[in-house]
Specification:
Length: about 250
């Protein structure tokens, strides 16, 4: 396998789906124009619809661009990070990733692909337990977000990942690897022990349950969608909407 494990990430085409979403927005804007708003509003809406129509035309003429979102899975093999990948991708493939500044010396990581639809996929990457946190950069770069798999009996194993993700600013959720009714600790006590704010989603479920992993991914994509809305990044918002809709339809 290549050093970056990219042959295990399926790249799919979502151009038609993106244009359909933009087309729906254009239809709603036309309805607003039919309400005969003020001249200033009408001029602004007309400019917006013209711009979006041009975007649709350009995308239709351009080569189709695939979408493959990347998910970073932390927490270590003992906490269940590899089980998380297996639960959604069917398997987790080991590969050797070069460590930055190590002269090419490799460290083991795992990856797997979750095909949401014939034209969409999520690629998951997890470092092995011995992979130094300071070298996570290539695995985290360009990721939609991260899932920190946590064993409630080994909470200290999650601290390095949580510290890294907080400092990097990447969106993340905490997936507690136990059914909630079987957990010896309440969610509030776990949040306190892990120093988690209320804005960080926490899910429960015993891996390798696909349902619990799916709940974590939905929570992560919803978080990414909200951030893209707040920052008004239309492309990222549309991609998150498409991923979310497919995740919710996946059994």
């Amino acid at each position: 396998m290549s050093s970056d494990g990219q042959e295990y990430i399926s790249i799919f085409n979502v151009g038609e789906r993106r244009r359909a979403v933009i087309g729906d927005i254009l239809g709603q804007l036309d309805q607003v124009l039919d309400l005969n708003p003020s001249p200033a509003w009408k001029e602004g809406l007309a400019e917006l619809t013209d711009w979006m129509s041009e975007e649709v035309s350009q995308e239709a003429a351009a080569p189709e661009e695939p979408l493959a979102a990347k998910i970073f899975v932390a927490g270590g093999t003992q906490a269940g990070a590899v089980d998380f990948i297996r639960s959604v991708a069917g398997d987790a493939f080991p590969y050797e990733a070069p460590l930055p500044g190590s002269g090419g010396l490799p460290e083991q990581a795992y990856c797997g692909t979750f095909a949401l639809a014939p034209d969409m996929a999520l690629g998951h990457f997890a470092p092995a337990g011995t992979f130094p946190t300071a070298a996570w950069g290539p695995l985290v770069d360009a990721a939609l977000g991260a899932v920190v798999v946590t064993d409630p009996k080994r909470l200290e194993d999650s601290f390095p990942a949580l510290s890294y993700l907080e400092s990097s600013g990447i969106s993340y959720v905490v997936a507690v690897n136990v059914e909630q009714e079987e957990c010896e600790h309440s969610e509030s006590s776990l949040r306190e022990a892990l120093s988690l704010g209320g804005q960080v989603p926490m899910t429960f479920g015993k891996l390798p349950s696909g349902a619990s992993a799916k709940a974590s991914l939905i929570a992560l994509v919803e978080m990414s969608l909200q951030k893209s809305k707040e920052s008004r990044r239309l492309d990222e918002e549309l991609e998150a909407m498409m991923l979310l809709s497919q995740l919710e339809l996946t059994p």
